[in-house]
Each structure stands twice: as C-alpha cells, then as structure tokens.
Design a protein that fits this description.
- The relative contact order is 0.14.
- The chain has two domains: 228 residues, TIM Barrel, CATH 3.20.20; 124 residues, Lyase, Ornithine Decarboxylase, Chain A, domain 1, CATH 2.40.37.10.
- The protein contains eleven helices and 18 strands.
- Helix 1 crosses helix 3, helix 6 runs parallel beside helix 7 and helix 10 packs across helix 11.
Length: 369
Amino acid sequence: MSALQISVDYDAITHNVALLRSRTGDAEVMAVVKADAYGHGLVPAAAAAREGGAAWLGVAQPGEAVALRAAGDTGRIFTWLYGPDFPVRDLLMADVDLSVSSPQVLERIAATARDLRTVARVHLCIDTGLGREGVTLADLPAFLDVAVTAHSEGEVRIVGLWSHLAWADAPGHPTIDAQAQVFRDALAATEARGIALEVRHLANSACTLTRADLHFDLVRPGIAVYGMPPVADPDGEDFGLRPAMAVRSEVILVKQVPAGQGVSYGHEYVTERATTLGLISAGYADGVFRSAGGRAEVSIRGQRYRIAGRVCMDQFVVDLGDATEVRAGDVATLIGPEGPSASDWALAADTINYEVVCRFGGLRTKEKA
C-alpha cells in the first residue's frame, strides 16, 4: 500500500438509496451526486443510486449533468447552480432539467430553447429563507410574469418548484416550519397562475429522515446517500445507513523512543514515558486535516491510536504505547468499519463529515471496495 487509499462500497450507496426510498411514501428520490458524488465518484455513485431506486439525480454544476449523460445515464437529471452565462445549449441538448433563480436565466433558457426548437423543463427556485439561490417571495409575482409568458409561448415547461432548508439538521428548529410556510405560499401563488407542477421539492437528507410532512413529490438526499446521517437517530442505529467510503494507509516505520521525546514539528507532543511510535504514510497533502493533530485517531490491528503531534505534509505519527504487535506494513484505517468514522474525523478537525469525505475523495482515484 502506498500513501492514502480511498475505497468506495457502491453497494452501500445502493442500500442507502433503497432505504431512503422506503421512507418516502409516494415521493420519489433525487440522489444528490454533486461535487463528484461528495468525493465518492460521480458516475459509479450515480449508477449505484439508480440501482437503489433513485428516479432523479441532482448536481449543482452543469458540467456534471452533461458528464452523466455522456456516461449513459438516461433518467431525469436536475442541475441548479449557474448565472446567466452557462452552457444552456449543451444542457438542453442533453435533456437536463434546469433550475431558474432569476428572470435573466429564464430568458436565456427560453431564447436557447426557441433556437433549438425544443421545450426546456425548468424548476422555479424560491428563496424561502436560506439567503442563497432563488427568488424571494416579494419578487415572485414579477418573476412569474416572465415565467408564465415563456411557458405559454411553448419555450419552457414549468415542471417544478423547489427550495432548500437552512437548519433541517436541527429537527424542531423554528426556521424549518417558517421556510415550509413560505414554500407553501410560493406554491399557492404559482398554481394560482395556472401552472400545473409535476414536482415540488424541499427536503434534504435531514428532512427526508425526520419530516415526512415535507416530502411533497420529491426528496433530495445528499449526505445520507453516502451513509452518513445528518441528524442523530433516536434509536442510535444511524437509521440503517451504511457508510460507503473507507480511507486507509500504511504503517511504514515502528521504533522505540525514550521518555521526553518530542514528536513532529514544534514538539507539541512529548512522550511521557518510554514508548513505541508508529509512522503513518499520509499527511495534509493527502487530505488529512492538519488541525486534527493530537485529536484524530486511526485504527491498527483493531486498536485505536491518537495522532501524536502535528500532521505533516505526507506523514504523521501515532503513539503505540505498549502495542508491541504492530509492525511496519500494517494497515492504518483512518475511516472505515474497523476504525473511526468520517464524523469522528469531523469532530477532531472541527468541521463536518461532508467536508471530510469531499476532501479525501477529491484527492485520490476511487476504487471499488
């Protein structure tokens, strides 16, 4: 084994999507595979999600939507993050559903659809309180004027209305119901203009797992697709989700040192007694969080060991104590069923598990487990 090895269990993604689908009743599942499927590999993760019952795939960037089509995906694909200057022609030719957050983007889509003699499928995005993409409720009437005109002229077909929640990972937070009410108000205003919507979608992973009343026609789970629950499971079972990513490296050196030995740059860690140190071939150039030094753990031969001192660019040290059985060549598991989780690393690095898997996955070629 050389440096960091990232493996992805795509069967776990299939399992997770099927489990989520079992909780959504009549609502369909859009598996969010943006950002290279959260570091898990766009195309294989999307295929695994489809196998689990995902009727839709969601990506933020237009390029990923086109890449999915080029890879042979023929189902519904939705993309949403762009300004007026985006590859709308490529997306329409690829039969991708498009989000609209402004009149300028809508007019660009309508003009391109007219040139191509096709009809664009669009989803109107409503800013219900997150303060990111979308049209505010105050600006919705003027926006609907433009949308209804384009719809009536046959250039676009308004098939969806959607929004995104700010605080769904805190079940019971008042912003959830407040945003849901704004969303319902936007729905009523849209339908009052004679628009028959195909799908209404608001729920992310947390909302999919905790608020069945907000599933509407379509849910958009992201992090849960990859086996990481966005909220605590009251039963302590992680909702039955299975983590898909594993991160492993190698112990490349084992040696005995005396008490008082400083370890790594700055000697932030000093041995309290004679002990054994293990050198792990992975560092911040491989995605290991430098901020996790002295806090994160790895698993070697089924035992957990904390990082001793600072994480370096391509290596870090663990204090093995009296573990005389550890040898150079042993596997060190950073994330995996036999070791810590992405959430454990997030806690150690003062971040979220989303960033952990995106960081690790983004720096190495994924291999099927």
